[in-house]
Predict the 3D structure of the following.
Amino acid sequence: MGRLVGSAVSHWGEDPWARGSWSLIGRDGSPEDRVALGAPIGGRLRIAGEATHPTRAGMTHGAYEQGVLAAAWAADRKPDRVAVVGAGMAGLGAARSLTELGVDVVVWEARDRIGGRTAPAEIGGSGFDLGANWLQQYDDNVLARLAERLSLRTVPTDFHDPLILDGSGAGAADDAELIGAGLRDRLEAAPDGASMADVLEPWIEGLEEGAARAVRRSVDAEIVMDSGAPLSWLSARHGFEPGVGAGDRWIVGGYRLLTDHLAAGLDVRLGHPVRRIVVDADGVRLSGDAGSVRVDAVIVTVPLGVLAEDGITFEPPLPAPHRAALGRLGMGRVEKVVLRFGERFWPAHPAGYYRVHGPAVTCVSEWLDATEADGVPTLVGLFAGPWLDDLWTGDDEEIAARAAAVFTQAAGGSSDHDG
Ligand SMILES: Cc1cc2nc3c(=O)[nH]c(=O)nc-3n(C[C@H](O)[C@H](O)[C@H](O)COP(=O)(O)OP(=O)(O)OC[C@H]3O[C@@H](n4cnc5c(N)ncnc54)[C@H](O)[C@@H]3O)c2cc1C
C-alpha cells in the first residue's frame, strides 16, 4: 500500500523569482495597499500582477486582469515599444493585449520557461501544476471563459466538503460552515492594526476543548491553508481575502494549456532577468544579465516578494506610497507535491478533496484526488504551516516520500516510506 512511483515537488519559499507563494495583507495593511502598488508611476512605469488586484489577489485571473488593465494604460500613451517584465499570467495578459492594440512589445522573463507561478510539471507523460491548479470564481473568471473556448477539460472540486483524514481512515468534518461564519464575523469586526492571532487566540482560549479543536481546524483550513503565513502577521480585518471555495475547477493537463496559448506569437525572451530599471524623460532602460533594452514604457509584473526584497533596482526609486504598500503586504508560503502511486489505497470521496491536519496547530495539508481525470492513482497535496520546516528538507524524493507518509498514515494505511 502507498507504493510511490512518481512525484514532483515545489520550492516557492526559496524560489528567487517568486520568493513565496502569493501576496497577502499584513496587520497594518488593507486592500488600498494593493491599489497603491498598482497606481501608474509617471507616464512610463506601472506595476501589475496578482498583488495589485484589490479583490482578486493571489489568483491567476486577477493577475491576468491587472496585466490587461496595465496594457490599456500603456497603449493610451501611444508608445512605439513597451517592455513587459515577467511572463506569468499578468505579463502574458499585458503583452497579448498590447499586441492586439497594435503596440510593439518585448517580454523579459528571468526563468527558462513562461507561466510564472503556474509552474508546469510532468509525471509519466501527464501534465500537472506545481503552482496554480484551479480556475477559481469559475463563473466570473476571464481565464475560465478562455478555457471553455479552448475546450479544455476542467473538474469541479468542493472545498466546503473535504473528507477529513485523521488516522482512522476518514473522520467526520467539523461543522465547518457554522464555525466559518463565527470566524468571519469576528474578523470583520476586528479593528485596523489587529492581527489574526490578536482576534483568534483569546476566542479559542475561552472555548472548551472540543470546540477549541474544531475552531483551530477551521482556522487551519480557511486561513492557514489559504495564506501560508503566521496568524500573528496577517491582518485580522483584511487578511481573509475572497477566492477559494467560490466555484473552483481544476484544469486537467495543467495551466500550461492556457499559458502556451496566451504566449503564442509573442516576443518572449527567456533567461532574461531584469536587474535595473531606469526611467528618464526620454524613455526607460531595462538592464540585466542578458544586456539591456530601451523602450517607451514598462509594465513590471514580477511577484511582490521580488519587489519587496529589491530584486530589481529602480531609478529613481519607487515613490513613497508604493514602498509603503510593499511594506504592508507580504508573501506566504504554501508548497505543493504531486504524488503518483502504484495503486489507489485511500477512501473515495465525491468532492475529490481531503484534508489532513498536522502534528501542531497551524500545520495543515489539503489533497486533490486526480486519479479519475488522470487515469492513474494520483494525489496533489498542498502543505502550509510550520511543519514545512521539517517536511521540506533534503532532496525532492525525500520530501515526496515524507509527504506521502503524511497522507498514507492519515488515510489509515501504512506507507512504504514511513519514517
Ligand atoms: C502553490 C500555489 C498554488 C496556487 N494555486 C492557485 C490556484 O489554484 N488558482 C489560482 O487562481 N491561483 C493560484 N495560485 C496563485 C497564482 O499562481 C498567482 O496568483 C498567479 O499565477 C500570479 O501571476 P503573476 O503574473 O502576477 O505572477 P507570476 O506568475 O509570478 O509571474 C511573474 C513572472 O516574473 C518573473 N520574474 C521574477 N523576477 C524577475 C526579474 N527580475 N526579471 C524578469 N522576470 C522576473 C517570474 O519568473 C515570473 O514568470 C497559486 C500559487 C501557488 C504558488
Observations:
- The CA atoms of residues 12 and 20 lie 5 Å apart.
- Residues 415-419 have pLDDT under 50 and may be disordered.
